[in-house]
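[job 4471] stage=fold_predict status=RUNNING
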Amino acid sequence: MSAATLYAAVEQHFAEAMQTLAAVDARQYSALADAAETIVQALLGNHRVFTCGNGGSASDAEHLVAELVGRLEAERPGLPALALTANSSVLTALGNDYGYDEVFARQVQTYGGAGDVLVAFSTSGNSRNVLAAVRAAQERDMPVVAFTGAPGGALREQLGPEDRLIAMPATRIMRAQELHRIGIHALCDAIDRILLGGHA
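[job 4471] inference complete, writing structure tokens
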């Protein structure tokens, strides 16, 4: 393959990413702002944030937790958040004993309680273990914040009126994940602005 062909392929990725980013609009901005309010309300009530996802979405789930427990930019106390993707012994034990569809739901059932928040990442909106985790959260009166691509899959249909859907305008997995990463940073900044009085 020629250098020019590779150059064009790389250039196409950036052009496509910019085009996808340009499609983000008030729907996503409002959903992120609402999600920040939901999470802050939980945190101020001494509740916790749990996150889950598969593959690249697992890394997004862990990235969000890192920003909450650590910080985005502004200095503040750590915020109680836990990634349900991070304990390999728990994940493999649950996958072995209960099936992979239950690896997140079982943890929500174990750790979660009313008032906690589940942040679920699924670019397709159809990941069975994420859907199961959302059901477990809803059974415990835990609000859900869901990051998906377009159009949102089964997860969109499963969410209730108190839940928040952040459906990014992308059908290609890598493009949705790129927008999720920007959404994570925007969400954390909004959380900090609420907690710190607009001085994040």
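[job 4471] summary: Residues 26-195 form a domain with the Rossmann fold fold (CATH 3.40.50.10490).
[job 4471] exit 0
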